[in-house]
């Protein structure tokens, strides 16, 4: 399962190796990091998913953005999740895109932010979905 088609910065590899999910770095149209067995908070239809993160051209000097989940996540209470209707094919699977972005008030800062801080942001996006 472990494919490493491209090289990530050493700090990202160190973070991923200690994070607790099997991970891959694959080239499939774009460069992707796939986190297998990524745990979601209670309240979603799946407790474990694959989380896909597109490594943007120019990273680590370019910002990371969004997250993609397989299988698709829905809330168990039936409430809709905004900005999750787009589909992205990654590694032969149809991932659900969560369109979540950094803002001027909370920017992605190259040199300070990285794949690890982006993964922590993803964890926060999943939790914040239930704080509306």
Could you please describe the fold and organization of this structure?
The chain has helices at 10-19, 115-128, and strands spanning 23-28, 30-39, 48-55, 67-70, 87-90, 93-98. The longest helix is centred in the last third of the chain and has 14 residues, at 115-128. It is globular, with a radius of gyration of 14 Å. The protein is built from 2 helices and 6 strands; from the N terminus they run H-E-E-E-E-E-E-H. The model has no long low-confidence stretch (mean pLDDT 96). It has one domain. A 6-stranded antiparallel β-sheet has the order 1-2-3-4-6-5, with no helix packed on it. By secondary structure, the chain is of the alpha+beta class.
Structural class: alpha+beta
Number of helices: 2
Silhouette: globular
The sequence of SSEs as H and E is HEEEEEEH
Radius of gyration: 14 Å
Percent of residues in helices comes to 10-25%
Q: What is the strand content? A: 25-35%
Poorly predicted spans: none
Q: How many strand units?
A: 6
Largest sheet, if any? Answer: 6 strands, antiparallel
Overall structural domain count: 1
Q: What's the arrangement of strands in the largest beta sheet?
A: 1-2-3-4-6-5
User: How far is it from the N-terminal to the C-terminal residue, by CA?
Assistant: 37 Å
Mean pLDDT: 96
Q: Quick recap of the structure?
A:
With 132 residues, this protein is of the alpha+beta class.
């Amino acid at each position: 399962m472990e494919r490493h088609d491209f090289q990530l910065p050493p700090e990202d590899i160190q973070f991923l190796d200690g994070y607790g999910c099997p991970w891959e770095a694959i080239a499939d149209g774009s460069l992707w990091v796939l986190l297998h067995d990524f745990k979601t908070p209670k309240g979603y239809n799946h407790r474990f998913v694959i989380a896909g993160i597109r490594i943007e051209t120019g990273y680590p000097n370019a910002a990371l953005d969004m997250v993609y989940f397989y299988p698709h996540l829905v809330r168990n209470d039936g409430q809709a999740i905004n900005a999750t209707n787009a589909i992205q094919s990654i590694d032969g699977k149809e991932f659900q895109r969560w369109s979540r972005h950094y803002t001027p008030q909370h920017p992605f800062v190259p040199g300070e932010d990285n794949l690890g801080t982006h993964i922590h942001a993803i964890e926060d996006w999943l939790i914040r979905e239930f704080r509306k």
